[in-house]
Every structure is written in structure tokens, then in C-alpha cells.
Amino acid sequence: MDFLITLVNGLSLGGIYAMIALGYTMVYGIAKMLNFAHGDIIMVGGYAILVFLSVNPILAIVFSVLFCIGLGIAVEKAAYKPLRGASPLAVLITAIGVSYFLQSLAQIIFGASPKYVIIADLGSLVIGEVSISYGTIITLACSIVIMIALTLFVKLTKTGRAMIAVSEDKDAARLMGVNIDHIIMITFAIGSALASLAGLFSLLRVPTIMPTYGALPGIKAFTAAVIGGIGSIPGAMLGGILLGVVECVCNSIPTVAPYTMAIEFAILIVILLVKPTGILGKKRREKV
After folding, report:
1. Based on the number of CB atoms within 10 Å of its own CB, is 227 exposed (0-12), middle (13-18) or buried (19 or more)?
2. Any domain includes 30
3. Calpha distance 145→148 (Å, rounded)
4. Is the pTM of this model over 0.90?
5. How does pLDDT run across 95-119, given as a tens digit for each residue?
6. Residues forming beta bridges with residue 124, ordered by sequence position
7. Is 229 inside any structural domain?
8. Per the structure, how many domains does the chain have?
9. Does residue 104 fall inside a structural domain?
10. Range of the domain at 19
């Protein structure tokens, strides 16, 4: 029974990592850039919930998602669009700069000390001697629904197919009439919305927030995206679930718990040594 609880918690945490990793992998797959400010969108979403929580929890969640979508689009237009065609190093440095800017701005507005964000007291589901919080169950269920919806969106809609076309060959997609800038903007909007929802579910697990709140989950989600295969949507899902389960299993073993993070990154190193493109990643041919 203890293992069942650990597994459910791991799948729930993995769902959160997968949602964040999907933002990384979509932006990389389509815009060919690593948005290291993506983790800080989680933090911004958390503070947006905090601001409106006293008014209405549902309104706070909706505002958080919309605000993060707007922020993601604004960051793409102001910071990344002017660097379209620039060297990857310039884009990477800009992304790190945006990350520190968002963290510093949050610290100026809300202070450096942690703040409690109690969204709702959901209670726990008790089956015999097993107790699983409803927050964990809701997170797991919502993450599954979101991942299925995103997969169907990419595969079945015109915009989704345009995203696939841009990720495969930007020049060919442009010749076919695809608006590259519009597709990249939509990609950032979707990734930011997922990051906001990941922030919501993270607060259901640990109801505290601070300016560096999204840094570690962002790094772990990026690790999950690389493990699954950066640029692959199913890979991001698989990597997130794998990392979440490993983390919860390791934390449930007292002698192993102190080394949990080391084990997670060791898994990344081993997988990259065996399959450099990640579990579901595909080797791309570079055109000369």
C-alpha cells in the first residue's frame, strides 16, 4: 500500500514536470531555442494566484493562466523575436537575463520571504489504511487530460499541423504560406499556459511561494525534456513521468533520500550516454 501511495504521488509529480517540460520541448522543437526563463513563468503564475486568491479562487486561477499567456507572448516579442537568426549563445544569455529579471521583479514587489498560498482545503481520499490527498488525484487526472488534449491539438488541428511543419522545416513551411511568427507566438502562449497550470498544481502540493519558486522545477523539467527527447511531445511526457516517479520512490527510502537529486541527474547522464537524442528523440539531419 505504501508503494501504491508513492507511485500515485510520483505520477502526480511527474505530471507537473511533464507540463513544464512540454513548454521547453515545444519552444525548442519549433523555435529551436531553449527558453530558460520558462521556469519563472511558474513563479509568476503562483504570485498571480496569490494576488486574486482573496477575491475568488476560480477567478485567481483563470487570471493566472491569462496573465502567464500574456507574459509569455510579451517575452517572446520583446526579448526573443529580435534575436531571430542570432547565435544560440546570444539567445541563451538573453533567456538567462529574462529569468533573473522576473525573479528580481518578483522580489521587489512581493519580498524575498516565502508566502503561503492556500488555494483550497481539498482533504484526502481514505481507502482502508491508505490516504491520498485529493490534490494529488486532481493533479494526476488533470495532467493526463491536458497531455491528451495537447497531443490531439497538435495532430488534428490546422495550427497543430502548422507547428509540426515549422519544426520540420521553417523555410518549406514559410513557402507553403505558414506564418512562422504567429506559430512561434502560439507556441509560447501554450507553453506559458502549461507553466501556469503547473504552478497551480505545485501549490496544491506545497502551498508556499517565493521569487525562486520556479527555478528548481524548471531545471528538473528541462532534465525531463532531455531524457524523453528534446523536441518530442511524447518524450517530454515520458521524461516528466519517469523523473517524478524516480524522485518520489527515492524520497520514500530514508537511506537514498539525501541523494535523490544526484540520482535524477545520473539517470540523465546514463540515458544521454546510451541514446544522445533522449528516449524518444530523433536524430535530425542537418542540411548543408
Report:
1. buried
2. yes
3. 5
4. no
5. 999 999 999 999 999 998 999 888 8
6. 133
7. no
8. 1
9. yes
10. 11-215
